[in-house]
Amino acid sequence: MKKFLATALAVCMTVSLAACGSSAQGTTTTSEAAPEASSAATATEAASDAAPESTAAAETTVAAEGAVASVDDLPGKSIGVQLGTTGDIFASDYEEQGSTIERFNKGNDAIQALLQGKIDCVMIDEQPAKAFVANTTGLKILEEPFAEEDYAICVSKDNAELTASINEALAKLKADGTLDNIVKNYIGDDTKGQFPYESPADVDRSNGTLVMATNAYFEPYEFYQGDKVVGIDADMAQAVCDVLGYELKIEDMEFDSIINAIQSGKADIGVAGITVTEDRLQSVDFTDSYASSKQVIIVKE
Q1: Which is nearest to 194 in space by CA: 176, 180, 209?
Q2: How many CB atoms lie under 10 A from the CB of residue 64?
Q3: pTM here?
């Protein structure tokens, strides 16, 4: 009987130990699985953290793809122009192709809108564009010019005599190199500031005063230096007045008011980097050209 009890006790102990071993193995397995679950969670978090970066990269790529890199990219874009300028006229042709034209009273206002991301580009004359880019970080001019143009002085259709006189004065100023020197004084790294125009001391101004309408925010053609309007156009007009015997008076106004000022008699001439166009010829006459320029496109770098 004792032998039987001893044998039964031994069997029970064996079963108990086996159960404990099985329990221990299960515990070990669960413990080993924990790091794997932790790794999976970490990977999920990493993927989650990477998602915003991927989205931002995708948005940057889309923005780059949507940027204006050439004239061919203009359809469908938002184009900033100065109201009433040649840039305004040229850009208007793109409205039929889905472009939005944002018009500003001053070129600088268009530049600020570009910097703030409100528009995709600015279309403006080459020399003012160079001045804007030189004075503003983060802008560039596309290498491909949009259009070439000539500047001339606008005069009332009722004053053909004045138009003819100005043409004679311009011819003289071109022939003696005065006009070239005026341009070089404002344009050119090696010549800028080297050829300031000065009126002859003995000019007879008995013909009265010639009123020039301009928009003095178009460097280097017209801009403020202190309280005085200076620039290529201001000096050229002064030289014309010196030849013709006039005092020069400059009236600064919005660009799209200049032709109205000529028609109403408020001003005698309009000089503001004005390009001859068929539309403008219906309202005023133009003198011979005194300068050439290009329409260019400014974009963010």
Answers
A1: 180
A2: 9
A3: 0.69
